[in-house]
Amino acid sequence: xxxxxxxxxxxxxxxxxxLGLTGSAESRRRLAGAAAADLAGRACPEASVERLRxxxxxxxxxxxxxxxxxxxxxxxxxTRLAPTVAGLLDVLDLRGDPASPALLGAAGPRGTALHDLCxxxxxxxxxxxxxxxxxxxxxxxxxxxWEAANREHQRVPGVxxxxxxxxxxxxxxxxxxxTDLAYxxxxxxxxxxxxxxxxxxxxxxxxxxxxxxFSYRKEYRLTGDGHNxxxxxxxEERSPEQAALLAAADLFNRTLxxxxxxxxxxxxxxxxxxxxxxxxxxxxxxxxxxxxxxAARYT
Length: 299
Description:
77% helix, mainly alpha, Farnesyl Diphosphate Synthase, 299 residues
């Protein structure tokens, strides 16, 4: 990991505190245990300090929103979550433009922090990156409403449905986009090869499923939440917990093999920008695995 990680972690914690993302001692404890800078540093070890900090702050924000939904009850029902999502969508519509105090006041600390992220992305003067980032965060927020509807009805989704929606609830795509920004990877409007999109989808699946396998026991023990690949497999196949865990691990391994094969084929004729794109996705897969092994978030 880059030597700046420790300082970036302190600066990101100060940012979260200053903007009100950590409103209680418990939320501060959870975010500290999440080690967002550690994950960002593993995923993006060659980034400049400024761009590593931007990625870290995004991950911090995603963890804060997830914790509010999963552990503080914000995501228990769509009715409760919808006003928060609407306020955050208003912030995204600005795409980093100056915001009125009234709008940010209505959006709350999560909206203020999101606006700061959008403003900093905009400062890099890469419009395609900004549009991709705001669109991906929008998809993340709307997918949270799907989770809330499932919780309200105590519904466990089927595997195919879960896999599709997990690509959005994981917040992986905006994280990929800021990693590309850090590495000067090809902007979204220049990716004309469908093979790049297919590789990104596999990478997102692997990052999210790795998270699911490591977090399963904690999430199920504390909340009984049905939003986990293991739970979806167990429900669809009517299998016991251990068998579902093994099936999830097997699916991860088979998908990793498919990812490696696609990556190898793609790199045979790739230009330097595509090499950076691929390295960013590969880095995220490995970083998530290594980070998850020691993450206090999953214990």
